[in-house]
Structure formats: C-alpha cells, structure tokens
Design a protein that fits this description.
Elements (H helix, E strand, L loop, with lengths): L3 H9 L2 E11 L9 E7 L22 E3 H8 L5 E5 L9 H9 L3 E6 L11 E4 L9 H6 L2 E6 L3 H10 L7 E6 L4 H14 L3 E3 L3 H4 L4
Parallel strand pairs: 2-4, 4-5, 5-6, 6-7, 7-8, 8-9
Antiparallel strand pairs: 1-2, 1-3
Helix pairs in contact: 2-3
Length: about 210
C-alpha cells in the first residue's frame, strides 16, 4: 500500500512507476540501429489486444521510483534516452525530462498520444491506437507517426492519422509482430504505391535483443 506522500509524488511526476530500464539498440522507426537507454514506465489504459508488454498496464505492480534515481542510472550508459511504457504520458513527465536535460541527455518518447503532452522532448514518436485516439497536443508535436498494421483496415486508419499530424512528421508503417508474414508484403506494396510512407520493422526482435 502506497503512502499518501508517495502518491502525491507520483501524481506530481517526481516519482514514477518504473517497470524496467535497460541499455540496448533502438529497434523501430527513424532512429533504428542507434544505441539508447530505455526507461519503461508502468501504467496504460489504452488496451491494445496485441500489446507485447501487457505486464506494463497495471502501474500498481511497478515500484514508484524517484526520478533522480532513474536519471542517475541513465547517465551511466548513453546520451540518448527513450521513455516508453505502458503509456508514459499517463504521468507528468516534466520532472523526469527536466532532470535528464540537466544531465545533458537527448530525450525521446514513444507514446500513443492518448494524454496531453508533458515534458520537454527532442524526439516524439506517436503510435496512435484506435481504442483511444491521440490528443491534439501530440499530433502537433510528433516527429514521427508510426502506425502498427495488424489488418488491411489499418491502412485506412494510417491515412486518417497522417491527416492529423503536423506536416513535418515522418510517416512509418510497421507490421504487428505476430502478423508480420501476412502484412509485410502488403506494407511493401502500399509504400511503393504511396511513397510518402516508410517501413519500420521491429529489428530488435530479429536481432534477439531487448
């Protein structure tokens, strides 16, 4: 049972439910192949049925951790940090990103955009979900739009989302891992016919790394 003091610190973003943190290679999107320190924050109510980290959904399962401790660990490994989840924007990211910036870190976020943008980011990856669409604040600031393709209707969804992001956002289509054999050829054909899009793959899974 969390004390009232801890609950207040979590609500302020001065502590966060930390699921895991690890140094690895970015496997998806624009920065594929680059080294980064990942901070995975617990808590998500978006509820994608094909989510591969469903254990992140319940924030209560992950210990509230002071952002100073998270930043101390991150600075040992890399100058680029990726904050992911769960859905990190469930929480106020201002304290975490402020501390990371003070340490000279470059900060990326991977988000469904379901909540208002908080924190200061160098790169915003928006991966929208049909169950809870992004807020306008994230559409406006997204550096890349990454749509997961599970079935053919997701191409229509992708085009709808591309109309909502800012014109500078880089557009990616990524096959959902369990459906990659069926969907990858369709994505290849789609991108060749619609070259404003690029293909993203979960290369970390091919490399068998986190």
């Amino acid at each position: 049972m969390l004390t009232q003091e801890v609950k207040e610190l979590v609500n302020k973003g001065e502590m966060l439910p930390l699921m895991e943190e690890f140094y690895t290679i970015q496997g998806e999107g624009y920065h594929t192949g680059t080294a980064a320190y990942f901070i995975r924050v617990g808590g998500c109510d978006v509820g994608c049925h094909w989510c591969d980290v469903k254990e992140s959904w319940n924030a209560d399962l992950h210990p509230p951790t002071h952002v100073e401790n998270i930043v101390d660990n991150a600075r040992k490994y890399a100058d680029t940090v990726v904050v992911t989840g769960g859905e990190p924007l469930t929480w106020d990211m201002s304290a975490l990103t402020s501390k990371l910036k003070e340490s000279g870190m470059r900060i990326h976020i991977e988000t469904s955009g379901a909540y208002e943008l908080s924190g200061e980011w160098d790169w915003i990856t928006l991966s929208p979900k049909k169950t809870k669409l992004p807020t306008q604040s994230v559409y406006d600031k997204a550096d890349e739009l990454k749509v997961i393709v599970y079935n053919k209707h997701d191409f229509t969804f992708a085009e709808e989302q591309a109309q909502k992001v800012n014109p500078d956002a880089i557009l990616f289509l990524q096959p959902e891992w369990s459906r990659r054999e069926e969907m990858t050829p369709l994505i290849v054909e789609y991108v060749m016919n619609n070259p404003k899009w690029r293909i993203s793959l979960q290369t970390h899974k091919y490399l068998n790394i986190p």
